[in-house]
UniProtKB/TrEMBL annotation:
Catalyzes the isomerization of sedoheptulose 7-phosphate in D-glycero-D-manno-heptose 7-phosphate. This is Phosphoheptose isomerase. Transmembrane segments: none annotated. Residues 40-198 form the SIS domain. Zn(2+) binds at H64, E68, Q175, H183. Binds 1 zinc ion per subunit. PROSITE patterns: SIS. The gene is gmhA. Pathway: Carbohydrate biosynthesis; D-glycero-D-manno-heptose 7-phosphate biosynthesis; D-glycero-alpha-D-manno-heptose 7-phosphate and D-glycero-beta-D-manno-heptose 7-phosphate from sedoheptulose 7-phosphate: step 1/1.
Amino acid sequence: MANNVKAMFEAEFDKSIKLLTAMSRDAHLHELMAKAVYQSVTALRSGRKLLFAGNGGSAADAQHWAGELVSRFYYDRPGLPAIALTTDTSIITAVGNDYGYDYVFARQVEALGQAGDVLVAISTSGNSRNVVSAIEAARAKEMIVIGFTGQSGGKMAELCDTCFRVPSAETPRIQEGHEALGHLLCALIEAEIFPRGD
Ligand SMILES: O=C(CO)[C@@H](O)[C@H](O)[C@H](O)[C@H](O)COP(=O)(O)O
Ligand SMILES: [Zn+2]
């Protein structure tokens, strides 16, 4: 048992470290991050908002990142408008029951989204139908779409304005990559909109 834990511990951490190290030096990811920050900051400075959607672990990311913006990330400053579309069980169960689970996010995008808002769409496969439908609804509304997915990109890859593809095919590794990128996006938005004097 102890050996098994040690072996698995080291193997899993090694994979995570390798992935995050490769990502940290990936010039294409740096460019995509600059673009995503610009798109988000432009929307927020124009009085627009960020909407977040994803399933399972990515639903947790959606809520986590919306929380960073509405509350605070590194320091105190006014709240920024961000909404996770994963949290209202009455809306999700009503839309799921009446129209189907594929529409639980798209319906909220149609109801809440405005041209110039940003949809942050998170899917490790890039193929979850409710996430893809939300992207299509956002495009129809002339919103900006920032996607987070895995190395294959799935259907999402062609549909997003900016698409972060974490270079891994393993769901947990892709999620770890998303977590690092999402935190960085929140930190850079905060720093750009509320620069600190120090
Ligand atoms: O957190 C995990 C796996 O680490 C799971 O809950 C995972 O998020 C779920 O299976 C999702 O339904 C996967 O959907 P997606 O990332 O392909 O859109
Ligand atoms: Zn998970």
